[in-house]
# Entry
Amino acid sequence: MDLRETLHRHVEDGTLPGAVAIVDRGGTREVVAVGSVDVEGSRPMAEDTLFRFASITKPITAAAALVLVDDGTLALDDPIGRWLPELAEPKVVRTPVSALDDVVPAKRPITVSDVLTSQAGWGFASDFSLPAVQALAGVQRDGREVQSFPEPDVWLAQLAEVPLTYQPGESWLYDTCSTLQGLLVARASGQSFPEFLAERVFAPLGMTDTGFVAEPGRFTAFYKKTPDGLVLADPPDGQWAAMPALPLGNGGLAGTAGDWAAFGRMLLAGGAGVLTPEAVRLMTTDHTTAAQREIGVLFLEGQGWGMGGSVDIAVTEPWHVPGRYGWVGGTGTTAHVVPATGTVAVLLTQVGEDSPVTPGWMRDFWRAAAA
# Structure
């Protein structure tokens, strides 16, 4: 089944109101737009429709931080306390299952590298019942509700009150480090995170439609899947209608499939003037150990993690290729680059999943993109 047929089938059966996909195989580019921007069918989906990127924001945020590493503003072994003094002396629960008041000092400072590889010690493990993970959930809120976060200084103060679940460098934990990357970029550059992205990433790549605010007339509605069907979670003039207090590096961007594809082609081109080839190598190389992958198995499903995205290290499905890099988003998005084949594959939809387990329709897209 080809790409258009695959996506059309999931629109026809009511799973998705619509979708836009790009599969660019080294210059042979297929673009498919199917369905509508909402369940009412008020406007057909178009190639330039805007979507909530959600967690496929993470690779873009990591790239922004690596721009500063390339510049010499940040070094990978720098303690983050230089720019984020609120986090200079974190406490760590004695063991991952320990109570929040059973803490010890961190054995060493959290470094820029720890934050870029999601190994700082804050974040979500596969076991959501861990006390420190439960405490974190009150700070690291649902990233699809971008207006629910306070200003950066307030958020950092709240995070500083939550002990690390693991010592710096010992674990891979999901999500929080990508938020920290955006804050680190802002503090180290002296610019707001949106300004830095616009100047150093979006402008060079022609990503004119990507940002933290979306024009309602081009934006999709966003739905959550429930036992009773799709329920509206955010209208086009909702959460992305105004700049949030905290522009989220873990999932706050909105944009088009074409813009993310331009970002992907930059990675495949070795940085294309935005990043050095060494920075791209760091982004797209697995930095995890087997023990770290086990802590995050619910998210990683046996694969590795580079900086801002997963890296395929095990071929367990037809779409897995060693070195394939990218991620998925909780608003129904997925974006990957495959260096071995020169492929960029992007799918944007408007149906969110609350489970980190990949839905069948997304796996069908991966299968079609790999064909």
